[in-house]
Amino acid sequence: YNNAGNYKEYIFVICWYFLSGEFMEYFSFKKKLSVSFIAMLLAASSVQAKQILEPQVGPWVQFTGKGYQFCDALLKELKRFDYSQLTLRANQQACAIDLVIPHFKQLKEPPWQTLNPKQYRPLLRRIFTEGFYPQIERDFYQPDALRTRAPLTREQEEQIERKIDKFIANGRYLRIWRMPFPAWLEESARNQNIPVTPLIFIQTARLTDKVDADFIASRCKGIPLSPSKTASGPLYLVNESLDGPDPRMMVYGRNQSTDLSRMLKKMIWFKNKIYLYRDIPHFTSDWGVSFISSGKREWFNGNYCEIR
Q: What is the pLDDT of residue 146?
């Protein structure tokens, strides 16, 4: 797999299945098989980890997006810089995300508007509550009916309030951008009686401090660019009241998940960032240099760009 994150997820899922009671009961030779199988997976995982962690700074490879004007331009921009002073391939990708892409002149950030976090405590409470649920239930978009199955204790609620106070005291803030609903998703939405009102993105943010700047500079030696003035956090799609999730995202289960909800989730998956290329929103993630465009249906064909 090109994506190390996906690779590890498959390893975890397969291990979980083969160690489950159902599988173990079916096979009488469970111990011998499980030990051999885990050894095989660990060996494969160690090879993958070795490929990631060993110094492998080298030329960029365009896995998808060849011929896509944006992706070709991005590849050309990445190649303009000298990465020979970096020690790890992972640093090469991180430096591209932290330094090269934000300075790419063909990209620009959306016109974010700053919100006073003091006025949006319910939204911050929803965001910070995620860390107090079991891992499998940590989802900003989880329906309220599911979240109330394990109500928070009074101590946990107090901890959340302290987190909000600290967030505000440290000068962090929220920023908002309203994106027109993608035209190619309108038919899917209307077929399900889902409104096609603008998508409201919220992102936590703060000013980049000296610690961040020094860390990036030490990791990205030889790249003559400065870090962005703003350090941004995860993206959230929120409702019109700005106090909770966009209801179009709050669908769960095989029978409830829709093309619309799946596409929207891809936009905000794992700390994605938004850039505008010729006024078309493009979403990038921390998993290497990869972009998806919100402009057309062909996200995983011509409008998907992955460079490693």
A: 67
Would you list the domain boundaries of the chain? 7-51, 63-307
pLDDT score for 96 = 94
Name the more confident of 274 and 258.
Answer: 274
70, 180, 220, 226 from 216: Cα distances, Å: 26, 34, 6, 9
pLDDT at site 134: 64
pLDDT level of residue 38 (50, 70, 90 thresholds): very low
C-alpha distances in angstroms, 133 versus 46, 128, 269, 279?
Answer: 31, 10, 19, 38
**pLDDT of res. 152:** 82
The helix-helix angle for 30-53 and 4-18 (nearest 10°) equals: 170
Q: How far is CA 112 from CA 6, 109, 135, 211, in A?
A: 31, 8, 31, 25
In the structure encoding, which two tokens stand for residue 62, read together? 């365009």
Dist CA 213 CA 184 (whole Å): 40
SS3 192: coil
Tell me how far apart the alpha carbons of residues 194 and 187 are, in angstroms, rounded to a whole number. Answer: 10
